[in-house]
Amino acid sequence: MATTYNQQPHLPPPPPPPQPQKQYSLLRNRLHPSITEKLDPEFVNLYNNFLVHSPPLSADINIVRQNYSSLYRFATNPASGVGGIGETQVPGWSKYPGDVNVRVYVPPGEEPGERKVWPVHFNFHGGGWAVGDLETDAHICHHICARVPCCVIDIEYRLIPEYPFPIGIMDGLSATAHILANHRTFSIDPDNITLGGESSGATIALVLNHLFRDAGLAKKIKGVIAATPTISDVRKYATPDMSPWPSMQESQYTPLLYWEKLKWFDTFKWMSLASAHPGTTHKEQKKDVSWFADAMNGPDFKGLAPLTFVATAEMDPLRDEAEAYAEKVRAAGNQVVQKRYAGVPHGFMRMDRILRQGGEYVDDVIRHVRMCLYPEPTDAAVPAHQDHKNDSGDSDEIKEEKVQDTHQGDTHMNDVAT
To answer: Model's pTM, two decimal places?
Structure first.
């Protein structure tokens, strides 16, 4: 593994707030009167001063990708320092051969090889399956690494529509499996891991929880952190009124993620199944989607991770489906912590410099990852999130085995540590 560690433990300082650009001050960007009073005044102020001037949704996915990871950085608190950061590549889903980039965060005060093993948190970025990269969640990855402390491995799965859905899920599965099989290279404990992400990345973490359980590897997953996951299949609904989830109607005009934008991302998802790739057919691609199109249709919710933390935003159209999913996991006998953050929309967690709820979310993630990876108290120093209250509170020998993807019976995940 060609891994290079830098000696710059901090992210670059956040840029100054963007200056208003009048050419994007369109009436359609203004807050809809139906939701203004429901939003936190701090967010309303932030939106009206800066975010209202953001470019409208573009039909060109490449333009959206260029701006996605940096759009809210001015509203993000400085990240915690880490001991080192390295990048490498690992195999993605074998059905579509190719490597995916991963970024490895090492806790402060340690370099690779100086400690026998670290517990590890795997992160999957959001972006509607179509946008996002290793910069998208760099902020929260720094915080988890430094403050839990643990190794954090961020996986840059391949995107739709260049690759067919569920490429993000299956790349996440393959990359995680490869890393666990080579745990000594990464100085991690393959039996003490958590999975997490935001939006579509949260969905990846939730689905992998099922797939690891189906492969008989449930004991490895100590917890799952899922923030504002996308659960249901919105292609079934032509309008928000057709959705069974009231939040779809209540937040259809909420900024950052609204009905039109949801359908825009969904178009790319199903467009991706028409992608021409050697060795596969459209019929096979549709079969690959399986229950992943709607995570509520998972075949079995029993015996999942010891703890699942589901974070939802009050003014998010995805709120109700995520909370229903959390309840279904709980009803199957699993421990679930579900928290709704008041007055904020989808994506609020990237605005912790300005929004109280953003800082609260970061602290909640740190606390729950630490609870999962360190069931006993640790002596490691875990500083509170900047400007916000901190509400915290022997690996087996490696073996290799073939793990069957039980939703189809095909081998998608090889060389998993047991």
So the answer is: 0.85
